């Protein structure tokens, strides 16, 4: 299988990024829900937020690369009826919007005091907007709301993938897993 997508298959780069980001996003969601309930004196109070922000920022960089990759590669044709294809196209676009919205709100909370984000102590990503105390409360709310909404959205997306696999019995899920197999009855 090639690195790039073709008109009917995802290449390795898209597949790896899809699953890596899916696992990391779900991971930092769980971390986020857990960390906001920690006691100030818990040894994980600061560390958990630091890990959450560091992974979140790496995901944001990866997302920029993913978008460029997506725009410069063919997109394998979506399987299903015309209206299913139309929904899938917009749901996929919605994923990108959701990812950007959750990550950017997180970034704006963190930089509300004008300080950059330290990423695993490797380097600091600067605050691009001026300090704005109070922003963290409003955006904290939006970040939480968007993160929960995103999880519901992913649940539906995963449900649709399983429906393709078990009900429609097409290769939608297999080709995103890198399994090159024809099931003979694709639509
Ligand atoms: C954070 C979690 C997830 C995100 C953000 C996400 C996002 C996306 C996006 C944007 C696409 C379009 C292809 C692309 O641009 O890369 C896609 C395709 C796909 N996703 Fe996910 N996904 C997630 C989780 C899952 C899960 C859990 C499953 C399966 C149980 C799944 C199965 C698929 C399949 C099968 C496709 C290919 C659809 C097609 O060929 O038309 N995804 N996903
Ligand atoms: C897809 C990526 C992300 C997901 C799914 C996510 C999810 C979450 C969740 C569920 C919470 C707990 C919200 C609450 O109950 O109040 C949270 C909190 C937080 N996240 Fe994220 N996050 C992501 C990315 C980021 C990024 C990139 C940053 C910053 C660089 C960030 C910074 C924060 C901060 C500062 C909090 C604490 C907010 C507060 O105490 O009100 N997050 N995140």
Task: Compute the number of strand runs.
Answer: 2
Please write the string of helix (H) and strand (E) elements: HHHEEHH
What ions, cofactors and ligands are bound?
protoporphyrin IX containing FE
Fourth CATH level, the homologous superfamily = Transmembrane di-heme cytochromes, Chain C
The chain-level mean pLDDT equals: 95
Low-confidence stretches: none
Q: Total domains, how many? A: 1
Q: Any idea what the CATH architecture is?
A: Up-down Bundle
Strand content: under 5%
Helix proportion of residues, in percent? 55-70%
Q: Structural class, judged by helices and strands?
A: mainly alpha
Can you give keywords for this protein?
5 helices; binds protoporphyrin IX containing FE; 187 residues; two-stranded antiparallel sheet; mainly alpha; Fumarate Reductase Cytochrome B subunit; elongated
Describe the structure in your own words.
The protein has helices spanning 12-35, 44-71, 82-110, 135-168, 172-176, and strands spanning 117-119, 123-125. By secondary structure, it is mainly alpha-helical. The chain has one domain: Up-down Bundle (Fumarate Reductase Cytochrome B subunit). A two-stranded antiparallel sheet has the order 1-2. Helix 3 (82-110) packs antiparallel against helix 4 (135-168). The chain binds protoporphyrin IX containing FE (HEM) (2 copies). One protoporphyrin IX containing FE is lined by residues 25, 28-29, 32-33, 36, 49, 52-53, 56-57, 59-60, 99, 102-103, 106-107, 109-110, 117, 140, 143-144, 147.
């Amino acid at each position: 299988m090639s690195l790039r997508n073709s008109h009917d298959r995802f290449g390795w780069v898209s597949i790896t990024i899809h699953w890596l980001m899916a696992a990391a996003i779900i991971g930092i969601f769980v971390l986020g829900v857990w960390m906001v309930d920690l006691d100030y004196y818990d040894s994980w109070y600061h560390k958990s937020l630091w890990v959450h922000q560091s992974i979140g920022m790496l995901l944001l960089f990866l997302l920029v690369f993913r978008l460029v990759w997506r725009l410069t590669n063919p997109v394998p044709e979506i399987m299903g009826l015309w209206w299913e294809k139309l929904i899938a196209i917009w749901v996929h676009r919605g994923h990108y919007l959701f990812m950007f919205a959750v990550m950017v709100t997180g970034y704006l909370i963190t930089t509300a005091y004008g300080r950059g984000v330290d990423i695993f102590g490797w380097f600091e990503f600067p605050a691009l907007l001026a300090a704005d105390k109070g922003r963290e409360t409003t955006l904290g709310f939006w970040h939480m709301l968007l993160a929960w909404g995103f999880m519901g959205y992913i649940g539906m997306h995963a449900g649709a993938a399983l429906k393709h696999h078990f009900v429609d019995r097409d290769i939608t899920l297999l080709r995103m897993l890198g399994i090159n197999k024809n099931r003979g009855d694709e639509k």
